[in-house]
Amino acid sequence: MTQEKHTISLMVENIPGVLSRIAGLFSGRGFNIESICAAPTMDRLVTRITITTRGDESIMEQINKQLNKLVNIIKVQDLTETDFVEREMALVKVKAEPGNRAEILRLVDIFRCKVVDVSPTHYTIEVTGTAEKLGALLELLKMVGVKEIARTGSIAMAREKK
Amino acid sequence: MKLTGAQIVMEVLKEEGVDTVFGITGGAAIELYDTLARSDIRHIMVRHEQGAVHAADGYARAKKDVGVCLVTSGPGATNTVSGIASAYMDSIPLVVFTAQVPTHLIGNDAFQEVDIVGITRPCTKHNYLVRSIDDLARTVKEAFYIARSGRPGPVLVDIPKDISQTTTDYKPLPRPSLNSYNPRYKPNMKQLKWALTLIKEAKKPAIFAGGGVILSGASRELATFARRLKAPVTASLMGLGAFPASDELWLGMLGMHGTYRANMSVQSCDLLIGIGVRFDDRVTGKLGTFAPHAKIIHIDIDPTSIRKNIPVTVPIVGDCKLSLAELNRLLDKEAFTIDSKSSKAWLDQIEEWKNTIRLSYDQKDTIKPQYVVQKLYELTEGKAIITTEVGQNQMWAAQYYHFDQPNCFITSGGLGCMGFGFPAAIGAQVACPDKVVVDIAGDGSIQMNIQELATAMQYKLPVKIVILNNRYLGMVRQWQELFYDRRYASTDIEQAPDFVKLAESYGGVGMRATRPEEVEPVLKEGLGTPNLVVMDFLVEREEDVYPMVPAGAPITDMLLVN
Q1: ipTM
Q2: How do residues B222-236 score in pLDDT, each as one tens digit?
Q3: Domains delineated in chain B
Q4: Which residues of A touch B132 (CB under 8 A)?
Q5: Burial of A105 (0-12, 13-18, 19+ CB in 10 A)
Q6: Which residue among A82, B221, B281, B433 is the one 20 to 30 A from B481 at the CA level?
C-alpha cells in the first residue's frame, strides 16, 4: 500500500482543547502528523487547521471518519481529492559573509523571497511557496551555511471552480 | 430565577429525567453534594469512585437510560477513569460529574487538582471543563444530549468548586443543537437496496449481532429479519440477549470462546450481515482469514466502525433498529422468499456442526464452574439480570447462561475491566428492584471492588454474588498452561479472604459449596434469601474455558479438548 501525502483542512470550534483532541486522536490511533497549522478564520468562533499526513486509502478513510467523530470539528475536507492551493512559509537565517552575500541575494531573487533582517554576519530570509520549493531553496542555502530555520507547515485551500 | 451552579446542575438533572446519582463526595464536591442532598434525586453513596461509574453503567444498561455519577476532584476524578474507559468501549451512555478546584487555582497544582479533562479525552465521547457559570446549564444539557444520542458513550463534565457556588439567572434551555455534531440515524436507501440484492443472491447467509442491536432496542426487528431469511444468528459478547438463545436459529457466541457451530458458520457463510458490531479482534481472530467466503453487509451507527478492521461489501451507516425495520419492509414489499433447497442444506450443515461439538464439561468429584452457571440458569429460569467480572467467569457466564432478552447480560466487554461485575450489579438492582440480579464472579475480580459490599448493605440491595472460586487469576493461568509451559507466574491467589465471613462482616449472608451436590442447595437458598448473599463455590482449580481460539489465529483453529 502506498503511503501518499494528504493535506486535510479542518474547520473546528475555536475553544480550548480542540487541538489537543486532534493531536491525541492521531497519536492514540497511530496516525502520523507531518505538519499542523492552526489559526482563527474570519469567524472568530471558528479555527481552520491544516494537517499534512501520510497513509494508504484505508488509513485515510479512518482519519477522515475519526476526525468527523470529534464533537468540536465542524468540517473535514481531504484536499488531496480536489484541486487546491498549498503554501508554506519559512524564515531562514543564513551566514552572510562578504564572499557569499551576492550569491545569497541571487538565490533570493531567483526564488522570489525577501531578506527581512540583516546583520553584519547573517541574513534572515522569508520564503513562501510549496514544500518542494522550500526544500529546493534550503538545499542551495545549506551550501552557504544555514544557522537556523522556522517553518510554518502547510496551509491550504481548495480552488474555486473555473 | 437566581440559582447557584449546584442548583442549576440539579435542575438540569431533573429536566433530563434523572432520579438516581451514584457517587462519593469530597472537598471540591461539597456544594454539589449539599444541594443534591436537599433535592429529591436519590443518591447511592459508593465506597470507591470506580464503583460509582460501574454502578452507573449497570444502571444505564438495565434501565436503558443514562447513568449519572458525581465525584470529587483529584483522586476522586482519577478513580473514575477505568469505569469511564469501560463504558466508552461498550458505548454506554453516562454523564460523569467531577468537581474541580476553584477556577483561580486551576493550573497551580492545587490540593486535589488534576486535569481530568486532559486525562479522559481519549476515553470519553466528549468532555467539558466548565469555565463560566453562564456556560453551565448549556454544558450539562449538551452532555446528556451527546451521551445518549448517536453511538452512546460517557461524557464528563468538570465543575470547579466556585462555579458550583456562584449564582446566576436560570431558565430551562431547549434541547441543544450543535452544528458540529449531528448523528445520522436514517440509513441510505440505495445502500439498503444494494444489501437486498446480496441477500437475494445468498445461499448461506449468517447474521452477526452486537451491542448496537441492544443499544438501539432492535431485538424484535432482528428476530423478524433472521426468521424471514432463515439466517442463523451469532453474537459478540456484547450482543448476547439481542437474539433469543432458545431460538432454533441461534448459534451461540462467536469468536475466541465462541461455539464450534458459530465459528464454523461464519467461516463458511457466503453472506455475513454484521449489525451493531465492530469486528473486534476477539471475534475475528486473524483478520485475513475471517469469513473468507462471505460478502459482508455492515450496519452500524458509527461510520468509524465500518471498514476499520475488515473490508465490507455494503456499508450501511444508520441506527440498527431503523435499518432493520427498513430492510424488513423492503423484503415484504418485494415479497421475498428464500430458496428452500439451499436454505435446508445450509441449516442441515449447521445442525451437523451443532451435533459434532457442543459446549460440554465433565462434572466429577470437584465442582465444575460451568455446572454452577448451568444450575444458576435453571434455577433462575433464565430470567435473572446477570453481570460478570472479567476472565473465565465471564466466558462461562456467556456460554452457559442463555439469554432470551436484551439488557439482561451486563459485562465489561471491550475494556475487560476486572471489578466491574459487582458494582454493575448494584446499579442494575437499583434500576430493577424487582429482578434477581446476580454477579457471576471470579475470586480474583471480586476482590477488585469488594468494598461495595457496604454500599449494597446500606441501600438494602439484595444482590447475589456467585464466586467461581479457583484460587487463580484463572484466564491468565489458562494462557500460561497453554502457551507458557504451565509456568504460573503471579496467578496463584490462594491467599484470599474467607468470603463467607467477609460477607457476614458486612452484614450480608455468606454461603459456601465445596462438593457438587452442595451446588444446587446453596444456589436455591442463596437466591431465595432477600439479602445481600455471597455464594462461594470452590471449583476445579485448573478448569479451562473451551473452545478456545489462540489470540491471532483463524477462528476455525479451535482448541476443543478439556
Answers
A1: 0.92
A2: 999 999 999 999 999
A3: 2-169 (3.40.50.970), 189-356 (3.40.50.1220), 369-538 (3.40.50.970)
A4: none
A5: middle
A6: B281
